[in-house]
Structure formats: C-alpha cells, structure tokens
C-alpha cells in the first residue's frame, strides 16, 4: 500500500520540481532588476532635465517589476508549501487509515491555482520588461 502512495505522490513532487525551477528563474530576474534599479539610483542625483525624467520613469517601471516578481515568488513558495501539504496528507491518509482524499485534492487544487496566479504575474512582468526594452521610434525613423 505504501508503494501506491509513493506512486500517487509522484505527480505533486514533479509539480514541486517545476515550482523550484520557476523560483530560480524569478529570483534571477529579480536580481537583475534590482541591480538595474541600483544603477539608476546612483544616476538619479547626477542627472537633470530630460535625462533625469527618463531615469525617474525607468526607476518607477523597475519598482513595479520588483513588486510583481516579489508577489510571484511569494505565490510560488505558498504553492510549494501546498504541494508539500498534499504529499503529507497522502501519506497521513495511508498511515492513519483516514479518508483524506478531499483534503488532498483541495490542497493540490490550491497549489495549482497559486501557481497559475504566479505565472500570470510573471507574464505581466515580462510584458512590462518587453515594453521597457522597445527601441524608441526616434532611433528607427530617419
């Protein structure tokens, strides 16, 4: 019976591995965005006029991106905890002889929902990053 529980727990564990990989990606992006924001903060006091306005505008965008990535990371971690709870519930069900199928399903569904919410935030962050990286028209015309 425990072998069946281990087999049943494999699917959530694969989701947990995927969450770990996405967390790695998000933390790398967060690091790059933070580094860029620190660079711009150093330039903030040294600029004036239109250059200063551009620095401030980019800092605002980066601040928004940092917020989105941080929220996505938080949701991913909570999703990972829900996956861990799902696996624990599956084993508790087997070892204690309880009927916890609905609890396991609920924690897994919660984990997947949190994962999808985090991915939506990640999508939004990448859209902002792509818009931010667009080449201004003044460089394309001429």
Query: pLDDT average, as an integer?
Result: 92
- Proportion of residues in extended strands: under 5%
User: Based on DSSP secondary structure assignment, what is the total number of beta strands?
Assistant: 0
Question: N-to-C SSE series?
Answer: HHHH
Structural domain count? 1
Q: How much helical structure, as a percent, in the residues?
A: over 70%
In angstroms, what is the radius of gyration? 22 Å
What is the count of DSSP helices, taking H or I runs of 4+ residues? 4
Shape: elongated
Note poorly predicted spans. Answer: none
The major sheet is characterized as:
none
Structural classification: mainly alpha
Quick recap:
With 142 residues, this protein is mainly α.
What does this structure look like?
The chain is elongated. The N and C termini lie far apart (73 Å). It is an all-alpha fold. The chain contains 4 helices and no strands.
Sequence-ordered SSE layout with sheet pairings:
Elements: H1 2-44, H2 49-96, H3 101-132, H4 137-140
Brief descriptors of the model:
single chain; 142 residues; mainly alpha; 4 helices; 0% strand; elongated
């Amino acid at each position: 019976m425990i072998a069946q529980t281990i087999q049943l727990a494999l699917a959530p564990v694969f989701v947990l591995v995927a969450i770990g990989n996405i967390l790695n990606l998000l933390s790398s992006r967060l690091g790059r965005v933070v580094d860029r924001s620190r660079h711009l903060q150093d330039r903030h006091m040294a600029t004036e006029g239109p250059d200063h306005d551009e620095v401030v505008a980019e800092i605002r965008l980066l601040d928004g991106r940092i917020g989105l990535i941080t929220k996505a990371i938080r949701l991913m971690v909570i999703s990972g905890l829900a996956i861990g709870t799902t696996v624990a519930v599956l084993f508790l069900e087997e070892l204690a002889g309880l009927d916890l199928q609905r609890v396991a399903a609920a924690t897994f569904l919660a984990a997947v929902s949190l994962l999808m919410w985090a991915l939506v935030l990640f999508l939004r962050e990448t859209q902002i990053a792509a818009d931010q990286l667009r080449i201004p028209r003044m460089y394309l015309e001429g």
